[in-house]
Design a protein that fits this description.
Blueprint lengths: L4 E6 L6 H12 L2 E4 H14 L7 H10 L2 E3 L8 E3 L2 E2 L7 H4 L2 H5 L2 H16 L3 E6 L2 H5 L5 E6 L2 H16 L5 H15 L13 E4 L5 H21 L13
Parallel strand pairs: 1-6, 1-7, 2-6, 7-8
Antiparallel strand pairs: 3-4, 4-5
Helix pairs in contact: 1-10, 3-6, 8-9
Length: 242
């Protein structure tokens, strides 16, 4: 697919991946894939089915059977498990504190990676974000970025996000479990704290949301302009495909 454009963004919890990537995808009219939501939905399903998260095989079977439907519209992100809309439910603290058990399950992770690759392959222009998009899921992406921020900034942002969603402030201990301790657990399955070769680092610690979005847009524009410059004059290229 010579005209496809994949933007892969990795980063730790609270770095702003989801909000930044949704805004960028909306700006370009691209698809958007939140791979973290897939792990969260799988976790919700396992808990709903009373699957023992310590049983690697049982979790893998549940993930293989997972009746997941995930929207790739950045302006209308809807995640359903079978007929149940879990878009809000998968953001609950109980999911945040359990999702690492699924994310570090090797068999379950591979099943979800395969599903993520299928979604990306079916899209002509997509912004995909997660933990290992730049290195495992889509290492051939034209734009590969590690979006990071200091621990203080990430804890503050996640706290504000959760307070806005629930109306109640989380304790610092709860935030540390959901952000820093989760990152520590997830790092056993993927390296999302250091940029691999060819992956650009975007540190948003001292940037506003708009500045972070604009920085990523600039990187994408550079690649798109390069693609146009190297396209034969007689070859038709649509705006969306570049």
């Amino acid at each position: 697919m010579k005209n496809r454009l994949i933007i892969a963004v990795d980063g730790p919890s609270g770095s702003g991946k989801s909000s930044v990537c949704r805004a960028v995808a909306t700006q370009f009219g691209a698809d958007y894939l939140d791979t973290g939501a897939m792990y969260r939905a799988a976790t919700w399903y396992c808990l709903d089915q009373q699957v023992d998260l310590d049983d690697e095989d049982a979790v893998a079977v549940a993930v293989e059977e997972l009746p997941l439907n995930i929207s790739t519209d950045p302006e209308h992100q809807i995640i359903c498990v079978d007929q149940t809309d879990v878009t809000e439910a998968i953001r609950e603290p109980r999911i945040s504190e359990a999702v690492s058990e699924v994310a570090t399950n090797r068999k379950a992770r591979q099943l979800l990676i395969n599903a993520q690759r299928r979604i990306i392959d079916e899209s002509g222009f997509i912004v995909a974000e997660g933990r290992d998009i730049t290195t495992v899921v889509a290492p051939d992406a034209q734009v590969r970025v590690l979006l990071t921020a200091s621990a203080e900034a990430r804890l503050r942002r996640r706290g504000l996000q959760l307070e806005a969603a629930s109306g109640a402030a989380e304790t610092q201990e709860a935030l540390r479990r959901q952000v820093l301790e989760r990152d520590k657990k997830d790092s056993k399955a993927s390296n999302f704290t250091e940029a691999a070769d060819g992956v650009a680092v975007l540190d948003s610690s001292d940037l506003t949301f708009e500045e972070t979005v604009n920085s990523l847009i600039t990187r994408i524009d550079d690649v798109r302009q390069g693609a146009v410059a190297h396209t034969p004059a007689d070859e038709h290229v649509t705006e969306r495909a570049l």
